[in-house]
């Protein structure tokens, strides 16, 4: 549905969008289902009627599920402002998928759980009046320890997270240069440094500019002024043949209207 909506809205949808949509829907749906099922199981121990138990479970779990889904949807819609069409189309498509997942988790899933009854939790069927397993154990003791002093706990946690976040002040979004990605000395890095010191920069990935043949001189002049370009090779293409740099064509040659300028940076 998400991909179809995006296509109808003239948005770009590709295989990457469909893959991410599948992963996102399965992940979010599983998360929402676990939250609702866990709450429903707790309420089955408190209420003999499973319809009543589901009503209480939905009343308590639905707001948390809604908040989670709304956060994801708003975040995905922000991708609409991306420059790439594929990324801009990814946002609405995935947002619709998450929204549909939320609707399914608060309508279809509760209905199926109530229809199936308590036996859906076999072999650990939650009987009415039985003790909740989570009432004891490590996390139960942690919860009882936090309950008397919640303000101290959240202030201390927030302060610890703030200290950890100080590292973002030195965040370098440009990435790590290729010659600094190794923990040991590599021959390739040493050779690259020697080439740079002698002005022999890497020409393995040249930039190719295609322009009209009559504008070739102007293109060469403009490219020569660009910083980082170490050399220019001007080639003319005609027919299915290719002339060597510096060669001249005879008067009978039939030139193509395109010229190719190869640069190395």
Folded structure, characterized:
This protein has 265 residues and is α+β, with helices and mostly antiparallel strands. The model is unreliable at 238-265 (pLDDT under 50). A hairpin with a 2-residue loop joins strand 2 and strand 3. The chain contains eight helices and four strands. Helix 2 runs parallel beside helix 4 (85-116) and helix 3 (50-77) packs antiparallel against helix 4. Helices cover 54% and strands 9% of the residues. Strands 1-4-2-3 form a four-stranded antiparallel β-sheet, with helices on one face.
Global shape: elongated
- Fraction in helix: 40-55%
How far apart the termini lie comes to 46 Å
Which spans have pLDDT < 50 for at least 5 consecutive residues? 238-265
Report the total helices: 8
In round numbers, the mean pLDDT is 79
The class by helix and strand makeup works out as alpha+beta
In terms of DSSP E residues, the strand content is 5-15%
Rg (C-alpha, Å): 32 Å
Tell me the total number of β-strands: 4
Strand neighbour order, sheet with most strands: 1-4-2-3
Largest sheet: 4 strands, antiparallel
Order of helices and strands: HHHHHHHEHEEE
Question: What is this entry, summarized?
Answer:
The chain has 265 residues and is α+β, with helices and mostly antiparallel strands. Helix content is 54%, strand content 9%. The chain has helices at 2-8, 15-46, 50-77, 85-116, 138-146, 150-164, 187-197, 216-224, and strands at 207-212, 231-238, 241-242, 258-264.
Q: Mind sketching the topology for me?
A:
Elements: H1 2-8, H2 15-46, H3 50-77, H4 85-116, H5 138-146, H6 150-164, H7 187-197, E1 207-212, H8 216-224, E2 231-238, E3 241-242, E4 258-264
Helix pairs in contact: 1-4, 2-3, 2-4, 3-4
